[in-house]
Amino acid sequence: MSSLLHSVVEAGIFSSDPVRTAAIIGGAAAVVSGVIGVFTVIRGQSFAGHALADISSAGGSLSFLLGINPLAGFLGLALLAAAGIEFIGIRRARERDLITGIILGAGLGLSALFLYFDVITHSTTGAAVSVMFGSMFTIPPSIIPLALIIGFGALFMVALLYRPLLLCSLDSELALVSGIRVRLIGLLHLLILALAVALSAMTVGAVLSTALLIGPAAIALRLVKRPGQALILAASIGLITTWGGIFLAYDSFYWTPGHGWPVSFFIVSLIFVLYIVTGWIQWLREAGSCSQVL
Asked: How far apart are CA 171 and CA 157, in angstroms?
């Protein structure tokens, strides 16, 4: 049994401090992203999620430049961007995507400036790689408490707002007639989305965090119809793909000695493969339903 385990899992993975830190922070990011991702996909705000992730890279870049907690940097810019998108969008609802795109461009411009200063100040490009594509095995353990606080806070807000948030996501006009403050719920959704984006940007990087936010949610909504089941399934898929990516990245050090592959690559690849497979399953279901009707 022991030899079989060692043939699959490389020695030292369960006692490695970087792996444990990556598993805890990555797990928190996966669960929160999966849950809020379901509402984001239903509301058709995937672009807003992508924009918040890219804009948060400015905060991550600034934190590396100043030498402060990078998660706080990602979180600060993501929250500011979420508030900006919602408040500007209230006055110009039809131009929401346009406003989001403009704020996105400004955020990426700031990110480029901060990364440039970081390169000429510290003479290294490591910060750019970590901010944009993540570097889970280099995350310091000191970030774990803040990551868990953000994760539990986001899940608590989702539990508190579940019914009005779900109704606003499915039918905003019916929610308005029912007396729900749709705009307030929209703002709170964006703020929770910012929390999820900050966590996912910290793990897989700002550029790839959209995959962790949207991918598991889209897969879950293909497989189940009930929103509650979709939330649980999306969180589970995110957790499995994240921990699977960490496992494969750790093993890759032994495939090419001394040159392990990025964790974010494996996580995004697993999500992509699952999305393709579930699309095939969905096509078979629809084909079977059509044949029964005929």
From this structure: 20
